[in-house]
Design a protein that fits this description.
Layout lengths: L2 H21 L3 H9 L5 H19 L9 H24 L2 H21 L13 H15 L3 H8 L6 H26 L7 H22 L5 H25 L1
Helix pairs in contact: 1-2, 1-9, 2-3, 2-10, 3-8, 3-9, 4-6, 4-8, 5-10, 6-7, 7-8
Length: 246
């Protein structure tokens, strides 16, 4: 990785974790579409996984007693299937098609969020844990962006905000640990410069997280969310075009 790429990496990670500190929105949704313009997706996703594990361990899970163990146990088996599938695809499929899939995924998720109704949705059936777990696991392994899938399911199963927040945090942590094992087995963690790049990016992530947490009380979360979604739409289009033109 060249010097200019390290500069882009540091700035992107700082911005991504600042947004995460502000809104709780997944840092990977911000960082991946930018970094894949300069670094292979197969390198970016494992690096962000290592960063997420460190930051999750430092922040810690709060209100563990509020975790819905029944929902967690319902999702985990299908999540493991999805992680295994996604890891296989990430290790073997040509980058251009992965970039096309990433661009489409970002556009669909941000478009859905922009037009979503504020009216409360009906409670989802337990059976939706199957597609939510598998699809969330696949996208977590492929792009580090399975959080929105889990959120769509759990937000319609757990109306109590504390229970929802604690459970989604637990799901993301379990997903990260599963991906760590899968990536280690597939060789994705043995890439040259992966640990060096992660160590370089970590301080930027921690600084961004601290800045975002401090700004949370000063900036409208609604305004940040709208601008962020518009930015992600642009990023999704850029990644999609890059994949199609490779």
């Amino acid at each position: 990785m060249g010097t200019e790429h390290y500069a882009v990496l540091g700035a992107t990670i700082a911005a991504a974790y600042t947004v995460f500190g502000l809104t709780g929105f997944g840092a990977a949704m911000v960082a991946v579409p930018i970094l894949v313009q300069f670094v292979p997706l197969q390198f970016v996703v494992p690096m962000l996984l290592l960063l997420d594990l460190v930051t999750t361990a430092m922040v810690g899970l709060r209100n563990r007693s509020s975790v819905s163990r029944s929902e967690l146990l319902r999702l985990i088996p299908f999540m493991m299937v999805g992680v295994a599938l996604g890891t296989t695809v990430l290790a073997k499929v040509e980058s251009r098609w992965l970039l096309v899939a990433l661009g489409l995924f970002v556009l669909v998720m941000t478009g859905r969020a922009l037009v979503a109704s504020s009216a409360p949705a009906e409670k989802a059936a337990k059976g939706w844990s199957v597609p939510a777990g598998v699809v969330g696991g696949v996208f977590s392994a492929l792009f580090g962006t399975g959080g929105p899938i889990y959120t769509m399911y759990l937000s319609r199963r757990l109306p109590q905000i504390d229970e929802f927040r604690s459970t989604i945090a637990a799901v993301i942590l379990v997903s990260a640990l599963a991906r760590l094992a899968a990536f280690a087995g597939s060789g994705l963690l043995q890439q040259t410069e992966l640990l060096r790049s992660t160590a370089f990016a970590l301080p930027f992530g921690l600084v961004g997280l601290a800045i975002g947490s401090r700004l949370r009380q000063r900036i409208s979360a609604h305004a940040v969310r709208r601008y962020l979604l518009l930015f992600l739409c642009l990023s999704g289009l850029t990644v999609l075009c890059r994949g199609l033109l490779m």
